[in-house]
Amino acid sequence: MYASKRYLIIAWLFVLPALLIRFFTTVYPIFETFRVSFFNVNLLRGINEFVGFQNYINIFQDPKMITSIKFTVIFVVGSMIGHIVLGVGLAVILNVKMAGQKVLRTIVLLPWAMPMVVIAIASKWAFNNDYGIVNDFIRWFNPGFNLDWLVHTETAWLAVIAVDLWKDVPFFAILVLAGLQFISTDMYEAAKIDGAGPIQTFFKITLPLISKNILILSIFFTMWRLTSFDIVYAMTSGGPGEDTALIAYRITTEAFTNLNTGYAASIAIVLFIVMAILSGLSMYGAKKVNY
Amino acid sequence: MYPKTVKEKNYDIPVAEPRRVPLWAKKALMQFFKWTPALAVGFLIMFPLWWIFVSSITPSGELFSKPIKYWPENPTLESYRYLIENADLLKKVWDTLLIVGLSILIGMVVSVLAAFSFARFKSRGLSLAVAFLLGSMLIPDVVTARPLYDFLRQVGLYDTYTGLIILYISSIIPFSILILQNFLNDIPASIEEAALIDGCGFFQSLFYVTLPILKPAIATVCIVNFILCLNNFFTPLFYSNGISVLSTAITQLPLRDNMYAVPWDLVSAMGFIIILPIIIFVSIFQRQIMEGIMSGGVKG
């Protein structure tokens, strides 16, 4: 019915606005980023010259970049381990049939539904030594506790990861829950009849059945962690020093504060390539996993 | 649990185990294991939110107390009054609602039309267009930020409502199209064909046949988009300056006579103004949000 030529023109007219908007807001700018990455642009000094791969070489000699890469790796790996362990645990809790299930699911949606900036900026206060909620909570159990979390490098790392987990583990758990609900109850009944305990059931039935689901989720969550920006912008401003400056934060600082747009573009392109390779490899891996 | 069996002369005889733990204790233990984790999770999420609320109605002088008071002794709305008078709060709320509302409305029209085309018409070009849209989802904000900023300045869209709305729309359409298209794929095109044969015009059939069927999907997508737009921080931060929505406003609060870098009294009030509507909204639309999240990768 819809096959005629006339309808195809309508179809293209319908699709056109979406294509145009996406073209001008994502595709055109990324080509521009690519082009600029070969130039030494410094708006402050009014320089704009072609330098080939110089920007790319500079990345790996810039101590600030090394720090950024180091923390980004720690942040992504640490946060993802937390996401998988806590997320699966929370999904199991959410899947338990109980009276308050609906209320609990609503509560769990809240961190996802709130802007990261609000949480990050509140965290700045929450991790304050004297008046923060975190230390206050620890002092319920250990009255003499004193620690200024965001002043020391390692504890600042921990704090940033903890806040990221608070915000996004519930979301991860809800997506895992979607996978859990596909497991038929017959499986669990069969396991019960065969004498499997709850722990055995979890590791031998639940986990293998949702592992592919978790793998695919982890790919997306890793990509989002790699481009995380709000959290350090509002919580630590990259501090102490530059120790919590995630790569995304570094890019925007170079591009908008230091006005090294060429250099910023080269970092952005490297980040993009790394993300493309990582997601390509893990998609390929996910296809190989079969249960 | 099923009773253990003992093999004896080829007969399976069920043997009742002596019950060491009484039944009521076992049940109580089960309830304990069910409720403790649930309550712990609820506490971990709600307690910080409660703390933000209490801080926002505590007089700013009393915030510097150790240990923290989780029940305000002299509750006051002073911080809120200050925000309305000095931080232009009402204008920001209005700007936010205007930008988010228009973005969702226009974004929805654009998405429904595109999803309809992708679901109903097949051609090689259209398949390429779908691939293009999905591929463009992989391009992160930070990678395109600076050139996009320069581009917006060149065409005069920087720091304008139009510019922001276009960017907000751009951020929500790939996901919306994906969900709507999946939904449309499940509706047989024969319903629309029947309408066409009965003498309906093309647009009539789109409006009176397809759209009503799409209603639940549209509602779900709108609800999720509302939250995504409200939480968008990157776009207003880099592509506007004078126009300030709630998510960026919280980072640019005026410093009252406060020796600390974060004016916590104002930040907590501003934070709670953002959080409260979200709590209410999520409570009302819990089911739709869950559906929306589960049916497609929504960025958090």
UniProtKB/TrEMBL annotation, chain A:
Residues 69-282 form the ABC transmembrane type-1 domain. Keywords: Cell membrane, Membrane, Sugar transport, Transmembrane, Transmembrane helix, Transport. It is found in: Cell membrane. SUPFAM superfamilies: MetI-like. One of its GO terms (biological process) is transmembrane transport. InterPro entries: MetI-like, MetI-like_sf. One of its GO terms (cellular component) is plasma membrane. Signal peptide: none annotated. Belongs to the binding-protein-dependent transport system permease family. This is Multiple sugar transport system permease protein. It comes from Mesobacillus foraminis.
Automatic annotation (TrEMBL), chain B:
GO terms for biological process: transmembrane transport. The chain crosses the membrane at residues 32-53, 97-119, 126-149, 161-184, 205-228, 266-285. Keywords: Cell membrane, Membrane, Sugar transport, Transmembrane, Transmembrane helix, Transport. Its main location: membrane. Residues 93-285 form the ABC transmembrane type-1 domain. It is a multi-pass membrane protein. GO terms for cellular component: plasma membrane. The keyword Isomerase does not apply. It is found in: Cell membrane. Belongs to the binding-protein-dependent transport system permease family. This is Multiple sugar transport system permease protein. It comes from Mesobacillus foraminis. The lineage of its organism: Bacteria, Bacillati, Bacillota, Bacilli, Bacillales.
